Amino acid sequence: MSDPSLLALTLAEARDGLVRKSFSARELATAYNEAVNEIEPLNAYVTPTPERALAMADAADHRLAKGEALPLDGIPIAVKDLYCTKGVLTTAASHILNGFHPPYESTVTDKLWQSGAVMLGKTNLDEFAMGSSTTTSYYGPVENPWRRLPEHQMGDNRPLVPGGSSGGSAAAVAARAALAATGTDTGGSIRQPASFCGIVGLKPTYGRCSRWGVVAYASSLDHPGPMTHTVRDAAIMLRAMAGHDPKDSTSAPVPVPDFEAALTGDIRGLRVGIPKEYRVDGMPAEIELLWQQGVEWLRDSGAEPVDISLPLTKYALPTYYIIAPAEASSNLARYDGVRFGLRVEGNSLEEMYELTRAAGFGAEVRRRVLIGTYVLSAGYYDAYYLKAQRVRTLIRRDFVNAFDQVDCILTPTAPSAAFAIGDKSEDPIAMYLNDVFTVPANLAGMPAISLPAGLSGDGLPLGLQITGRAFDEETLLRVAEVLESAAQFRHLPSFVAGGKS
Amino acid sequence: MIEGRTGAWETVIGLEVHAQVVSKAKLFSGAATDFGADTNTQVSPVDAAFPGMLPVINRFCVEQAVRTGLGLAAEIRLESVFDRKNYFYPDLPPGYQISQYQQPVVGHGRVVLDMPDGTTREIGITRLHLEQDAGKSLHDQHPSLTYVDLNRAGVALMEIVSEPDLRSAEEAGIYLRKLRSILRYLGTCDGNMEEGSLRCDCNVSVRRPGEPYGTRCEIKNLNSVRYVMQAIEYEARRQIEVIEEGDAIAQQTRLFDSRRGVTRPMRSKEEAHDYRYFPDPDLLPLVLDPEWVASLRADLPELPDMKKARFVSEYGLSADDAGVLVAEKETALFFERVATGRDPKAAANWVMGDLFGALNRLGVAIERSPVSAEQLGSLIDLIADGTISGRLAKDVFADMVATGDDPAAIVEAKGLRQLTDEAAIASAIDAVLAAQPDKLAEYRGGRDKLYGFFVGQVMRATQGKANPTLVNELLKKKLAAE
């Protein structure tokens, strides 16, 4: 049994405890290694790396003893299995990467290790990050540590999805089997699972965190970012993960501020936009109410709510589902059985390609590769891809115009709480609708954060989302922390490592 | 024009030249580009398209492309875009080639051809864009498997597309040679067709003079000027025959069989790939600083056309001679080193005559000439200052080619210094005339032709060393006096 007191810490608390020598990095790593074992039924981790965790913890203890602590020294974290980790199996939750051990470390994880963080393992995800439920993984679905309250189950106590695609990371943090995790967000894949699992998920500005060494889904939309217990933890993680990387041409050469220092608690006079378009058919009233509550909390803290319009919001989802599959169809062409991963032999080159890709890719990946191939085809390119790019430009302009009036924008993160594993799996459109509030920020490249703000009627976490100006994560985090303090979200899922404390 | 059964036909040709950029590193990765390295030793994870790897543009390759564009008097586009050209093949690891489709870095330009009849022809350049080379499939290493060598994968190529301005196989050959010359002058492509640094696709169609363009066929991947000319010649005649038989040309991609000298269909228009081009989201648009472009323009070397004009005006060479000397940068350089401070025409004659002859016989390029420009210059000096005669100089040159020695040393060692002592020459003349009383009598009798015989005898008597002018002068005097 893990030491519950160590598992109840936030990242910031653990960091301070390590520096004060209240416990050692090895003790912390041991507790979290056990927690990783304990939450095995959730299927959150694809590959735990307990020995590496202990070795890294010992190195951290060595530095801590000498008083040379690094910013994240001894902090055990989980890594979404989309980040390449040198010598450690990297799967993207796809059979096609069978047995792939990268000979390189992704820039973001390398930065985390250079900051002293300790690697607990690689977390499960939707195959190639394509999904909103972490049910498309070759390694099986991830279970949300939250369950509906018994009195609201109405006979349905089926396990719930953690959201996706970073569902393994979200479940691991929520179940207290990691102090923080890396995620990636292409259409909401950090924020929506954060909302479903009651944790904080931050999608930084496009270009803030390097994509080098992160298995690509849709290059112009993929954003690496942190998933944490608190807004402060997200600020600490982002500082370690961010920075210009000459190996990624889309990485921005901008300085990395001390995001934690931006958490002043003072948002007086800030203007918070409330876009009227973020209401969709069938959205539960409790989400609308929580959103109103969020507006009130911010008003009470001295911010000024401003009604705004983002008129092109309704086009964001269809635009996303053209651009993302288009890029994916090309990005995934390299999985051909020739150089690494799975190969199924055939009688000809074409047959080898066909058999390998048919065996290696799951249904959702195949669907998106086909859609992407279609929208880029001669005769369809202008009608689909080119038009989608034009709409994308207009959506970005919507946001830029909005930020002339306001400093950030408050919306719900997702139109629902977590749903049962198996629901929506037969209906891709229903599944895609989960991303309706998160996708616009990916198209615009703006930073956005989800934080837990309340519970649904049946006891499941609901998130609110704040979207900010490009490269102004400081304001975003400051507002998020104020909202976090107001919301006082202290609920725990029904299943956590170390038991309920 | 090609005369068919039913009248004259005009061949219309446009060339797409793939020129490998001279650069130590690849277009989007830091891997090396040396030719002939062991298989798969010059491959980075980017070239092998490992998961999560990203391309980063090599600034030097862009510089080379821009310099080439400037050398082709072309429009340099300050913003261009890299696109992905998607298709599956084992030697194309990412499943797409990064190329430039709708917005190339270089736009319209031109190449001026010097035609054999002394006129010039201007050939339009449609565009030049940067793209990656693919790897190489090795089909002959194993009875049933194909091996892949990725050393070439990701190497920078410039695709230089001409307008359909060429009208014969001969013109295509002249264009290709001229383009190669410009690239070599710029140092942006070594133009080595045997190593595959320069490859050519030919678009060929035929039409009746004055009529619209006919349907074209593309002949892929030709790797010598001779093949380009042969393939075009064959293809034009094939198309004429098809049309004259009453059939239509089908738009096709064809391959040239160099052993049989014919082109064969590779794929039809219907089988053409759908490359699904779209802007590469891993790369930002390529934006050039106009001042940087201006500085590249200012630093451009003298190119063949300018050099030819200068050789004509500065050295007084004929346009033909100047054209021959500037065709290869190294020849022009050699010539100028010989000509500086000397009679340029003598220098040109030596370079284009004896030197070219010797190099041809030896089968070596001028960079490897056994006679250096300095040595050839010294030889010309020895003639100019009367140390040796022009005739003996030919022998000295032959010795220089054979030994690599300096001409002065050869002249000394062989005692070839020219005889200018009038008394010695006069006594040699006396001896010759005395020894040939019959011939002398015939000459006196009116056989003027024998004059040459006496000169030859005097030269022989002096082992060719006598100064020919003095020999003439003194011999005439002797013959007239008696």
General description of the model:
The complex is a heterodimer of chains A (501) and B (482). By secondary structure, chain A is α/β, with parallel strands linked by helices. Chain A has one domain: Alpha-Beta Complex (Amidase signature (AS) enzymes), CATH 3.90.1300. Chain A is built from 16 helices and eleven strands. The model of chain A has no long low-confidence stretch (mean pLDDT 96). Chain B contains 15 helices and 16 strands. By secondary structure, chain B is an alpha+beta fold. The termini of chain B are far apart. Chain B has three domains: 294 residues, no CATH class; 112 residues, no CATH class; 60 residues, Arc Repressor Mutant, subunit A, CATH 1.10.10.410. In chain B, strands 1, 2, 6, 7, 10, 11, 12, 13 and 14 form a nine-stranded mixed β-sheet that branches. The longest helix of chain B is centred in the middle third of the chain and has 20 residues. At the A-B interface, α10 of A face loops of B.
Helix percentage of chain B? 25-40%
Using the CA coordinates, give the radius of gyration of chain A.
Answer: 21 Å
Number of strands of chain A: 11
**Beta-strand residue percentage of chain B:** 15-25%
**Quaternary arrangement of the chains shown?**
heterodimer
Structural domain tally of chain B = 3
> Helix count of chain A, per DSSP?
16
So, the CATH homologous superfamily of chain A?
Amidase signature (AS) domain
Radius of gyration of chain B: 30 Å
**Poorly predicted ranges of chain B (pLDDT <50, ≥5 residues)?**
none
Strand content of chain A: 5-15%
Question: What is the strand and helix layout of this fold?
Answer:
The complex is a heterodimer of chains A (501) and B (482).
Chain A: H1 4-7, H2 11-19, H3 25-38, E1 45-48, H4 50-65, E2 76-80, H5 107-114, E3 118-123, H6 167-174, E4 180-185, H7 191-197, E5 200-203, E6 223-228, H8 231-241, E7 271-275, H9 285-300, E8 304-308, H10 316-331, H11 349-360, H12 363-376, H13 382-405, E9 408-412, H14 428-432, H15 439-444, E10 448-455, E11 461-468, H16 473-487
Helix pairs in contact in A: 3-4, 6-7, 8-16, 10-12, 10-13
Chain B: E1 2-4, E2 7-20, H1 59-71, E3 79-80, E4 83-86, E5 96-99, E6 109-114, E7 120-132, E8 136-138, E9 147-149, E10 156-162, H2 169-186, E11 198-207, E12 217-222, H3 225-244, E13 252-257, E14 262-268, E15 278-279, E16 286-287, H4 290-298, H5 304-315, H6 319-326, H7 329-339, H8 344-362, H9 373-384, H10 390-403, H11 407-413, H12 422-435, H13 437-444, H14 450-461, H15 468-481
Parallel strand pairs in B: 12-13
Antiparallel strand pairs in B: 1-2, 2-10, 2-11, 3-16, 4-5, 4-15, 6-7, 7-10, 8-9, 11-12, 13-14
Helix pairs in contact in B: 2-3, 5-6, 7-8, 7-9, 9-10, 12-14, 12-15, 14-15
